Amino acid sequence: MEHTAASSVESSAIRKVAWRLVPFVALMFFVNYLDRTAISFAAPNGMNSDLALSAAQFGFASGIFFVGYILLEVPSNLALHRFGARKWLARIMVSWGIVALLFTWVDSAGGLYTLRFLLGVAEAGFFPGAILFLSLWVPSRHRSRILALFYLAQPLTTVIGAPLAASLIQHDGFFFGLAGWRFMFFGVAVPAILLGIVAWFYLVDRPADARWLTDEEKAWLTAELERESAEKTGTHKEKHGLKMALLNGRVWALCLIYFGFIYGLYALAFFLPTIIDGFEAQFGTRFTLLEEGLITAIPYLPAAVVLYLWSRDATRRGVRSWHIAIPAFTGAISVPLALYMDSPITTVAMITVTACSIFAALPNFWTLPTRFLDGAAAAAGVALINTIGNLAGFSSGYLTGALHDLTGSYTVPMFVVGGFMLLAGVLMLAISRVHRPDAGTVANATSARAEG
């Protein structure tokens, strides 16, 4: 009877976290990712011509965001650990919303570079902060499910955001005579500022402060999280410190794996609208602006479904190395294959496979760092992985554009994408053989099967 009561408290506590926190943080992520990738929708719809940008210049503008982002990523996540997620995530949102709003009036390539850099500075710490925040609200056995629900926001950003951006761009001259692409920047920036203000009052830093949990639920969550923390620090005391997180070989291996996935993710995000815009020259097919927006969204809806189902399997079995490696190898093959398709339909179908592969792996990947890191080490480790991984955000944007200008096609750039995803799969299998979970790194029997 006592076990049944404990199970009931566990179920209700996790359900409330899933419904009260995850949708709101996912909405923040939705707006974050939309603001970050809005440049990809603006590029083929007036921005590149108005600002006289080459493919390499557009790629540089896309990628320079990550320079500012990377410089402040670890300090920002440590500040979140110190001041609390509620204040810090709200501050980040308002800051990036203000910078995103300024894109409405950008008038030169130099101005675009400056604003993209400042946007990275303003956004630094949001994503790893959100991952850390949600990870520290639930025991490890529930993290795959919680992070999968959160991660659904990213593919859905394009499913909803691409048609939304196309709709805003079509309102050329509607708002004080602004060009459509400028009005689009305005339309996606304002929600970030409003959400940041709401987040200040809505988010809660820890279970003990949540009014929407019962006393029993608060006690159970607090006890479970403290038990897991004690197990990690008790068995591996050296892994509790910031210094050891930065010197941990497994952290750096995860950095490289994440780099491979993010390189593929942003190569698609920044250049897919441009590739679709080129279907007329390649295949002789013509699409309206709204149709191009809808086509851009196609790969991401199946990706959201696959993300959910793959993560549900990972929750049931425990996250294993193949939950991350198989998607990496699938993406490595599908990216170059898309170049050899003979119609828009088959090309988009193959790109869809790539999108499904990337999004299937990412939420399961993020369950790994907090298995063996805690406290400040977890904050620094998660931020470091995201920082090094997001070097791919800069390099994929710039290299894809530069290689296109050099070769005249996307063939070489997409083979580079496939190569990095292949590397991610190989490294995942390698570290799963070297590092196997034990009682100190995994808090329950389900996740004890995870890496192997």
TrEMBL record:
User: Which Gene Ontology terms of cellular component type are present?
Assistant: membrane
A molecular-function term among this protein's GO annotations: transmembrane transporter activity
Where would I find the Major facilitator superfamily (MFS) profile domain in this sequence?
A: 21-436
**According to Swiss-Prot or TrEMBL, what is its membrane topology?**
Multi-pass membrane protein
- Main location, first listed in the record: membrane
**What superkingdom heads the lineage?**
Bacteria
Q: Enumerate the subcellular locations listed in this protein's record, separating them with semicolons.
A: Membrane
Membrane-crossing residue ranges in chain numbering: 17-34, 54-72, 88-106, 112-134, 146-169, 181-203, 251-273, 293-310, 322-341, 347-366, 378-398, 410-431
As for what it does, the entry says: Component of the tartrate utilization system and may allow entry of tartrate and tartrate dehydrogenase.
Protein name, as recorded: Putative tartrate transporter
